[in-house]
Input
Amino acid sequence: MELVPYDKRNGKIWFNNEFVEWTNAKVHVLNHGLHYASCVFEGERVYDGQIFKLEEHTDRLFHSAKRMGFEIPYSKEQINKVCKEIITIQKVQNGYVRPLAWRGSEMMAISAQKNKIHVAIATWEWGSYFDPKLKLKGIKLNISKWYRPSPKSVPWDTKAAGLYMICTLSKHEAESKGYTDSLMLDHEGNIAEATGANIFFKNDKNELHTPTPDSFLDGITRRCVIGIAKSKGIKIVERKIKPEEMSNFIGCFLTGTAAEITPVSQIDKYQFKVCSTIKELSESYQNLVRKKSAA
Output
């Protein structure tokens, strides 16, 4: 089935405080967000017609904007209200919501002190981020040649457009070699995350080890899964993990709003099993998002 390009779809997008026709939600080619990556965004899941962890996502959107040096010209309450309204307008039951904010076109140079801040919110029906068949047996990752930069060089705790450049490069390279995604290391050569999801490893003691999020985003889903694991009595160990330590782990999985909980069967030369612990965590996560979204 041929996919409809995202700029050719039907319905409404909330754009600068108006619900406009989908194909009319346009920006000028000379906008600062496009040329200098002064854009922040969120990705939110809709389950059974409700947005999971909406307030947390909106809080992070505003945090990202502040770290990027600009202020969103609407309140958090307004953004939350519109996110709910747009999924009703678009009749999205199980899908994705994308709020974003960016600097406009008043100044076209490194400095953009006078640029207007634009905000848009779109939503669409969306299934699994990874192929559901692959998720059952675990996806395969290579190890990217691109490293997550030092926290002294970028606003690493934001969901900002510029931070995803090396993610696209890494994922494209992985796909060209037959992998589904790519594992990225941090600036010190430790395991960081996948291109758009956090990572966990399980050892033979039924502990979950996950990298310390000090140079990459501490995901909302990551924190949620840690809470689920702790409620089951599973010990969580957050620490620096060297790539060669992967030989000591039995299981591996990714977490993210899009990825949810996705098992991993291979990273480079390292093999993992889709064990019962990972399956149970995934089932508990699905129960949580459906229960919470229905509340």
About this structure: DSSP finds seven helices and 16 strands in the chain. The chain has a mean pLDDT of 95. Residues 132-294 form a domain with the D-amino Acid Aminotransferase; Chain A, domain 2 fold (CATH 3.20.10.10). The longest strand covers residues 95-103.
